UniProtKB/TrEMBL annotation:
One of its GO terms (biological process) is glycerolipid catabolic process. GO terms for molecular function: triacylglycerol lipase activity. Residues 41-271 form the AB hydrolase-1 domain. This is Pimeloyl-ACP methyl ester carboxylesterase. InterPro entries: AB_hydrolase, AB_hydrolase_1, AB_hydrolase_fold. It comes from Stenotrophomonas rhizophila.
Length: 287
């Protein structure tokens, strides 16, 4: 394994954080890092088809104001090498191997959507590695409607192509004027970085990740009572991708869980309410 020789500069924002590569068992993984170098690191895991440029810079910068934040690309996605896994379990093992290769020790972990599936599996597979867990826009294995993500998404992806809009405009936000305004602002934030942008996910990797999501939705439920660390669960109250009742299910089944639902918000509720989410997440991490 090899690590870039120049240490990350903690003064930069996510907009200009350099993309770095760490080789783990022959596969390079792309990541960006910012924030203070002391304290427990916070690792970020993103959604289906997401690359580094799909992390909301307002959320990353807000969290990095007090925490060392590391955002990563999954195997086979963006700047990371290899072939995208077709199971959440494989993604979790990649994440654990990457954490250990970085020499992180114990971490805090934040997973959005698919990233929330992976984060749950990481905690169940290696509970000693995670101190606190944040699950957003996500649900448990076998959760309601998760195996239908593709069927829900394809018509809105097509609508995005026909209207020349990013499909997240329809998939992540409700149809209200307030939510659509937030969608426009979020999508503009994703364009703020103009240099050293990540490679988009390939169609093949996109489809392989969808197989992993569908399999997660059809998987037998896990014993979430084994998650014995504090967990913050956040979502919009009108998520159509990973239906909002899954968030309540997680909160009911995880012993030390706190649930936050944002009003008139969809799958991307944390992006619509980015300032409130950063406030809630920092209070949780620092409590």
């Amino acid at each position: 394994m090899t690590l870039s020789s120049t240490p990350p500069d903690s003064r930069h924002s996510f907009e200009n954080a350099p993309t770095r590569l760490l080789e783990v068992d022959g596969t390079p993984f792309a990541y960006r890092e910012l924030g203070p170098r002391h304290g427990i690191p916070l690792l970020l895991l993103n959604h289906w088809g997401a690359v580094l440029d799909n992390f909301d810079p307002r959320i990353v910068d807000g969290l990095a104001s007090r925490h060392r934040v590391i955002a990563i690309d999954y195997r086979g996605i963006g700047g990371s090498g290899g072939k995208a896994p077709v199971t959440v379990a494989e993604m979790a093992q990649d994440t654990i191997a990457l954490m250990r290769a970085m020499g992180l020790g114990r971490i805090d972990l934040l997973g959005f959507s698919l990233g929330g599936f992976v984060a749950q599996q990481v905690v169940l597979d290696a509970p000693d590695l995670v101190r606190r867990l944040i699950l957003t826009g996500t649900g448990p294995a076998g959760g309601r409607g998760i195996d239908r993500v593709g069927r829900v998404s394809w018509p809105l992806i097509l609508k995005g192509l026909l209207t020349r809009r990013d499909p997240k405009y329809y998939l992540f936000f409700t149809a209200s004027a307030r939510s659509r305004q937030a969608a426009t602002a979020f999508l503009q934030r994703l364009k703020e970085r103009t240099n050293d942008r990540d490679r988009p996910a390939s169609p093949g990797a996109f489809l392989r990740q969808l197989k992993a999501i569908t399999a997660w939705g059809r998987q037998s439920p896990q014993d979430l009572g084994d998650i014995r660390i504090p967990v913050l669960i956040a979502n919009g109250d009108s998520d159509i991708m990973v239906p909002t009742p899954n968030s309540g299910d997680l909160a009911h089944r995880i012993p030390d869980a706190t649930l936050v639902l944002y009003d008139d918000a969809g799958h991307g509720g944390i992006f619509q309410y980015h300032a409130e989410f950063v406030r809630d997440a920092l209070a949780f991490l620092d409590s």
